[in-house]
Amino acid sequence: MSQVPKPITTPPDSAELSERITRVRALMGKEGLDYYVCFDPVNVYYLTNFANNVHERPFILIIGKTGAPVMLCPLLEASHVRARARCDLEYVTYYEFPAPAGQNWFDLYATLIPAGARVGLEEAMPVGIYKRTPGTVVVTDIIDEARLVKTDYEIGRSVHAAAVVNFGHAKLLEITRPGVLEIAIYGEVVRAMMGKVLTEIPEANLIVSRFVGAVWPPSISHDPHRVPTPYLPMEDGGPHVSIVTAQADGYGMEMERSFFLGSVPEQARKPFAVMMEARALAYELAKPGAVLSEIDRRVRQVIIDAGYEQYILHRTGHGLGITGHEAPYLALGDDRTLVPGMLISIEPGIYIPGAGGFRHSDSVLITDTGNVRLTEAPDTLEQLTITA
Amino acid sequence: MSQVPKPITTPPDSAELSERITRVRALMGKEGLDYYVCFDPVNVYYLTNFANNVHERPFILIIGKTGAPVMLCPLLEASHVRARARCDLEYVTYYEFPAPAGQNWFDLYATLIPAGARVGLEEAMPVGIYKRTPGTVVVTDIIDEARLVKTDYEIGRSVHAAAVVNFGHAKLLEITRPGVLEIAIYGEVVRAMMGKVLTEIPEANLIVSRFVGAVWPPSISHDPHRVPTPYLPMEDGGPHVSIVTAQADGYGMEMERSFFLGSVPEQARKPFAVMMEARALAYELAKPGAVLSEIDRRVRQVIIDAGYEQYILHRTGHGLGITGHEAPYLALGDDRTLVPGMLISIEPGIYIPGAGGFRHSDSVLITDTGNVRLTEAPDTLEQLTITA
User: Fold this and answer.
1) How far away is chain B from the Cα of A3, in angstroms, using its nearest Cα?
2) Which pTM was predicted?
3) Chain A contacts of B205, Cβ < 8 Å?
């Protein structure tokens, strides 16, 4: 597989979701767990296709060794869950929070798991739920592990999300000119991507449809997580750094580029070239069997050798899927290996105060023999110097 | 105070944030805590004015008995925190996640609190952080308690957010007609509210600026949390139920109305009238000193007496502030009392399959003598039957 797979825009069927539960149960078996309990909306969505926003009325998914998982949820949400879930669930509902003594979610929760059971919980589980979990509790992120390697379905959805990002990024490069304000770019790019999703997925779930289309102009591009203010104007020169992300009906991809308006300052040429060299090495190394920490170490070394060690602010990349940041990580502390079916960002960056930020990010699928980029945009200095 | 206070659109000053920390420290003293640790972005925002989205690189705020709180955060976010925080903080940064052994966030975290300390944590704290917290840990939501009664500043910000909601809701009633699609309403109303915020708060923080403008048409209005699909059309008659919410640069308000397009089905008249009667009683009861569970009990009784007990799906209301749902709750299980400075929704509802949903929600400030509504829209059956 060295070509981009076909996009998918339909909801998951029950076979797809069964496969995901089967993965979780296999890991439960390995850890000797009788139950696994999820609260993190991301994990609940992964296993059921139902998305929720966290508030004081919890949705708790309880997975036993067999049978339909139990969804413990507020009464007024049950039909919402039924409308979106694409798997069999057993429903247990509570009326409200807070309820009179004996009728709260935690009173019901206590009856759903036997005291003698061995129960796994996510690291993200709120301590308030952890403390009320019956049985012997083990904190273990087995769903993160189940989510590491994507199914063909997830890859197809991600290919679609990448097409949305490509569309948004093309719009961004078309409209970003000196003097244009951040909010105008944001509005146009977000609208373009949302419009594409809404025409291609008419039943899209807006709870898991989020779009960002922003540019860090040269005044802040050295500071990659300094969120721009709405009226920040674009400037002559660069580097400007784009960030375009789409969670398109549940599946997330990203693309980022360092680019220039009109001309390239002399001081930007070397860091741009070093970033491109580091990036090229990352693509070369991103193959099945490669150790993630080793990729990050070697990519960093390119930047260090150029004299820019103090300008590295982050790892080479991170996993992608139903979230924009997830395991695995192309980071010094992640000694796992790449496996076909993983989705990662490749985005080594250099951030020099006074000179700006140098980072291209793409969303990349690990294939049987190497990798294939799902996001596409110009990437050379010539292509990214916009003079029209 | 029976008039709506003046709106505020400026960021909090350090005196405002000191007052909030002082409240937390007073509660720490009562519980004998040496430290309180926050992770929930809502609480971190409340105490610092810095907003973040949760991902695998945690932001942890550690509050001791005296001195500046410690912000443990990723290296690449430190300048973002500095750009938005409006209080003194001591910064401790870690490079990445995952990092090589000894350099992870939890290695640093372990050095920031002495082993002999008594440490309070939120219920929402992820168990992964809880398990790595040094000292003797107590789970206690004292920040929720600190947030119960709003400062004058918070009230002023909320008055502004309510004006945004009022503007959005007027737009919604103006454009909602039979055949208009959900997504068209959503797009116009969200754009109207965002435009208002961006002209009135040029430096608005988009991470905490979110808007919803939606209508549940009669086909689903009996099902209050069944999120509409994008191409759902509005219909003749009703009830349609609007939901307009704004988190306007950090402060959240809501307004909802049951309304009719063209004509009122006969079967809708009684439940509308019962809802209005329940609502009127809630306003009458919502005064300082009133017990929340008692308000809910009496308001429910109006609906029960009309023969609609099985059509009650939720409590009478909930607190509002920097979130759209927070303590206190006008619910059977909340035996706290109302206090001047609390912000609550008042929204008793009746949901009848085949007849629809009947609910008006407003955002209301508890004053020294009673309450004052911050959101304003037509509310009678005549006003809410739109024939133009």
Assistant:
1) 31
2) 0.95
3) 227
Q: Is the pLDDT of residue A320 over 70?
A: yes
Identify each DSSP E strand in chain B by its residue range: 35-38, 60-63, 70-74, 90-94, 118-121, 136-139, 210-216, 237-248, 251-261, 317-319, 326-330, 343-346, 349-352, 356-359, 362-366, 371-373, 385-386
- Inter-chain residue contact B225 with A314, CB threshold 8 Å: no
Nearest CA in chain A to B197: A230
Of all residues in chain A, the one with the smallest CA distance to B207 is A227
pLDDT for residue A38: 96
Closest Cα in chain A, distance from residue B288 (Å):
20
Domain residues of chain A, as ranges? 14-147, 152-386
| B152-386: CATH number | 3.90.230.10
Q: Which of B103, B207, B327 sits opposite A227 (nearest CB)?
A: B207
Q: Cα-atom radius of gyration of chain B, to the nearest Å?
A: 23
Nearest chain A residue to B100 by CA distance is A333
Q: Do A127 and B104 touch (CB under 8 A)?
A: no
Q: Do A331 and B98 touch (CB under 8 A)?
A: yes
Can you list the positions of beta strands (E) in A70-153?
Answer: 70-74, 90-94, 118-121, 136-139
Chain A residues closer than 8 Å to B323 by CB:
55
Please check whether the two domains, A14-147 and A152-386, share a CATH topology: no
Q: Two tokens at B388?
A: 């133009």
Beta strands in A64-125 (DSSP E): 70-74, 90-94, 118-121
State the Cα–Cα distance between residues A174 and A182, nearest whole angstrom: 14
Per-residue pLDDT, averaged over B334-342, amounts to 98
Q: What is the DSSP string of A166-177?
A: HHHHHHHHHH--
**Cβ contacts of A225 on chain B, cutoff 8 Å:** 74, 76-77, 79-80
- Under the banding of pLDDT at 50, 70 and 90, the label for residue B226 is confident
Q: Domain B14-147 belongs to what topology?
A: Creatine Amidinohydrolase; Chain A, domain 1 (3.40.350)
- The predicted complex's ipTM stands at 0.93
